[in-house]
From TrEMBL:
Record-given protein name: Sel1 repeat-containing protein
Organism of this sequence: Pseudomonas pohangensis
Keyword Signal: yes
Record-linked SMART domains: SEL1 (SM00671)
Annotated signal peptide: 1-18
Domain of life: Bacteria
Length: 191
């Protein structure tokens, strides 16, 4: 009896996930065809059914708190792009510490874009203390992905450091993702 219930539950969950995928793909197609209302409806249905991709897309397309709620849901399920989108939303809303918290979560998982954003925040002191050495370390780490703009920013920062600071910054960039703590007083990204 228990085996039969478990099989039925797996079957229902499989159908629900298949429906979420179908709704997600149909929603994307509707958006492509210019049927925004239909597309958003289908994406929301897929998001409600648990599709992380739908939660991300619907969250990106939905303004305000409803969109933020869906981005947070996707972050809690491990979506790196959702963490970056949520960080950008917080940054655009001038919630710089919350943005830094989400970019930090993404940077710790290897996102060079998030690493570059953290470096930029530390250059100007938005949401994080102004710290050219740590800014250089984040930019140095991000530059390893090969983005010419990030490389230019890193090189500009390097020109402002003396030889000892440059060596410290290079050493710091190797350990920064593991060493950097999350920001005290801020909820974890996605919460």
């Amino acid at each position: 009896m228990k085996a039969g219930c478990a099989f039925a539950l797996m079957l229902v969950c499989g159908f629900a996930q298949a429906n979420a995928t179908d709704d997600y793909l149909a929603g994307l197609k509707a958006l492509e065809q210019g049927r925004r209302e239909d597309g958003l409806y289908l994406l929301e249905q897929a998001a409600v059914a648990g599709s992380v991709a739908a939660q991300l897309k619907f969250g990106e397309l939905t303004p305000g708190q409803p969109g933020e709620r869906w981005l947070r849901a996707a972050v809690r399920k491990g979506s790196l792009p959702a963490a970056e989108a949520l960080a950008q939303r917080y940054y655009d809303d001038r919630s710089y510490r919350r943005a830094a918290q989400c970019w930090l979560a993404a940077a710790k998982r290897g996102s060079s874009s998030a690493q570059a954003h953290l470096g930029a925040l530390q250059v100007v002191g938005l949401g994080l203390p102004r710290d050219r050495l740590q800014a250089f370390a984040w930019m140095n780490l991000a530059a390893s992905a090969g983005d010419p703009e990030v490389i230019a920013l890193r090189d500009n920062l390097a020109s402002q450091l003396d030889a000892v600071q440059l060596a410290q910054g290079e050493a710091l960039s190797r350990e920064l993702p593991q060493k950097q703590d999350y920001l005290p007083g801020e909820p974890p990204c996605g919460e």
